[in-house]
Amino acid sequence: MSSNALQSQGIDFQMGDGGGTEVFAIIPEISSISGPGGSAAIIDVTDLASTAKEKRVGLQDEGSITLEINYIPTNVKHALLRTAKADGEARNFKIIFTDSGTTTWSFSAFVSGFSVSAAVDDVIKASVTLEVTGSITEA
Questions:
Q1: Is the bond leading into 73 cis (omega within 30 degrees of zero)?
Q2: How many CB atoms lie within 10 A of CB 120?
Q3: What is the mean pLDDT of residues 58-72?
Q4: Does residue 18 surpass a pLDDT of 90?
Q5: Which of 45, 71, 111, 135, CA to CA, is 20 to 30 A from 123?
Q6: Where are the alpha helices (DSSP H) in the chain?
Q7: Distances in Å between the alpha carbon of 45 and those of 41, 50, 61?
Q8: In what helix (H) or strand (E) does residue 4 lie, and over which residues does it extend?
Q9: How many domains would you assign to the chain?
Q10: Does residue 54 contact residue 45 with C-beta atoms inside 8 Å?
Q11: For 44-56, what is the mean pLDDT?
C-alpha cells in the first residue's frame, strides 16, 4: 500500500502586511514548524442529582505555533516578526500545505516570543512563538 503522506519540503508559511487589501508574503528561512497545539476547557456541570461527573466542552484554544528560522537581521519579514513582538499587535498568517488541493490554514496571532541563538559550527537561528487568537480557518 502506498502512502499519501505529504512532504514537508515546500510548505509555505506567510505573514500579512496588515493593509486594507492584505498582501501575504512567505516568511523565508523557516527550518521547522511546530503547532498549533491547543485544547478546549472542560466545564464541570455536575449537580446534586448526577450519578457521575458530567462535563461539557468549553471554548477551543488553538494554542501556539513555534517557528525555527535561520535568522537574517536584514530580512524584511524577520524584522517584521520582531516589530510584531515589540508592538503586541495581532497579525494575520497563513500556512499553505503541500497537498494538490493546497489546503490553507488562516489565522490571527500575536508574536509572543522571539529568541535568537548561535552556536559553534552552526548558523544564527531564531525561535519565534506565535500565540493564536481566535479560530483557525481551513480552506
A1: no
A2: 4
A3: 96
A4: no
A5: 111
A6: 76-87
A7: 12, 9, 20
A8: none
A9: 1
A10: yes
A11: 97
User: Has residue 1 been placed in a domain?
Assistant: no
Does residue 7 sit within a domain? Answer: no
**Set of cell numbers at residue 17:** 502586511
Residues 87-115 have pLDDT tens digits of 999 999 999 999 877 899 999 999 999 99
- Calculate mean pLDDT across residues 127-133: 98
Local confidence band at 2 (pLDDT 50, 70, 90 cut-offs): confident
Question: CATH code at 23?
Answer: 4.10.410.40
Residues in the chain: 139
φ, ψ (nearest 5 deg) of residue 84: -65, -35
Nine-digit cell at 137?
480557518
Torsion angle of C-alpha atoms 128, 132, 136, 139, degrees rounded to 10: -30
Residues 15/64/35/100 CA torsion (nearest 10 deg):
-30
